[in-house]
Structure formats: structure tokens, C-alpha cells
Write a structure and sequence with these properties.
By secondary structure, the chain is mainly beta. The chain has a single domain, classed as Porin (Beta Barrel), CATH 2.40.160. The protein is 11% helix and 56% strand.
Length: 201
């Protein structure tokens, strides 16, 4: 019986020593990876685009044909930033040209843009803008401008940005500008294509 008691005490000591050793052994469990800072949300962007436009204006002479003007080339520089995840402010400056000598329209406008700020491949958007335009007409033989008109501009448009890299996207955009003057309204359509650089937080 004494032998049994000794054996029991020895087994208890062995088990206690094993438990203590396991408690002191360094843990091999990996700590969780740190959470990345920043939400990856789009905060602002700048863009440069090429444009092609057509405008139609009612003839001031009663019964006369509509006056149609095609602007075969142009450029727009735009930028936007955000109030929240879907709404931001947006502005653009641009110039369009016709085949007529030195005939161009310089326009500027700003307003509201609606676009998701998520880091997605396709980012559609829509905007409502208000601004002005300066019609720089053809020159006479002396080099002076024949026409120099100022317009109020309202513009409704939209498009989509397609992400090419983490910060660069291609933009396709269409808009319907209205040029308001003291007389008939010029109604237009404009197609734009270009590149966008986006900023994320």
C-alpha cells in the first residue's frame, strides 16, 4: 500500500511539472494583423478632356431656318471635391472651336455632382452646373473681333469614370448645355473623353 501512495504522489508531481512548463512556454499563436488606416474613399479629382459639340439656335428672323453650329474640337479642364459619400462640388473651364477663322467659345461653370466615392471599377456620375460663356467671333481684315457676346450657361450632364490604376481613370461624359442670351436660346450637346486623376484618403 505504501508503494501505491508513493507512485500516486510521483504521478501527481509529474503532471504538475508538465502543466507549469506548458504555461511558461511562449505562445505560437500569431497576433491579428493591424487594421489598415484610411477608408479608401475618393475625396477629389482633376480631369482633362477633349470635346465635340453641336448647338442649335432659333433664327431671330421669323420663319428663317435654325442656326446650327458645330464645334469640331475643344478642351475642358475640371475638378471636384466632396461633401459626403455621394454629393460634391464640381467646376469646369473649357474652350470649343469651329472651322470659322478664330471662332471659339470660352465657358466656365460650377455646381453639384452626384457620384459614389467607393473605390470601384466603374463610377457613374451626374452634374448640374451654372456659369457663363464668352463667344469670341471671327476677326475682320484689321484683326479685330467681329462678335464678342456673353452668355449665361446652364448645363446638365453625366458620364462614367473607368479606373485604369489606383489613381488614374478614363472618363466618358455627355452634357446638354443651354446658352442664354437676350434673345433665342442656344441648345447644345457635347461629348467628352479624357483622363482623370483621383485622390483617396
Amino acid at each position: 500500500m505504501a508503494a501505491s501512495v508513493v507512485s500516486g504522489l510521483a504521478l501527481t508531481c509529474v503532471m504538475a511539472s508538465s502543466a507549469a512548463a506548458q504555461a511558461q512556454a511562449p505562445s505560437t499563436t500569431k497576433a491579428p494583423a493591424p487594421v489598415a488606416t484610411g477608408s479608401g474613399e475618393l475625396t477629389s479629382d482633376i480631369a482633362i478632356t477633349y470635346s465635340y459639340s453641336k448647338f442649335t439656335q432659333k433664327n431671330p428672323i421669323s420663319g428663317g431656318p435654325d442656326i446650327k453650329t458645330t464645334y469640331h474640337s475643344g478642351w475642358q479642364l475640371s475638378a471636384g471635391t466632396r461633401f459626403n459619400h455621394a454629393i460634391g462640388i464640381y467646376g469646369e473651364l473649357g474652350q470649343t472651336f469651329t472651322n470659322a477663322p478664330s471662332k471659339s467659345v470660352l465657358s466656365y461653370a460650377g455646381g453639384i455632382r452626384f457620384q459614389t466615392n467607393r473605390r470601384e471599377k466603374f463610377r457613374p456620375f451626374a452634374n448640374i452646373l451654372l456659369g457663363g460663356a464668352n463667344d469670341q467671333g471671327p476677326t475682320n481684315p484689321q484683326g479685330a473681333k467681329v462678335a464678342h457676346n456673353h452668355f449665361t450657361v446652364m448645363e446638365f450632364g453625366g458620364g462614367v469614370d473607368y479606373a485604369l490604376t489606383s489613381h488614374i481613370a478614363a472618363r466618358v461624359q455627355g452634357s446638354a448645355p443651354l446658352y442664354l442670351f437676350f434673345g433665342p436660346v442656344s441648345k447644345g450637346g457635347r461629348f467628352q473623353i479624357g483622363m482623370v486623376y483621383t485622390f483617396f484618403k
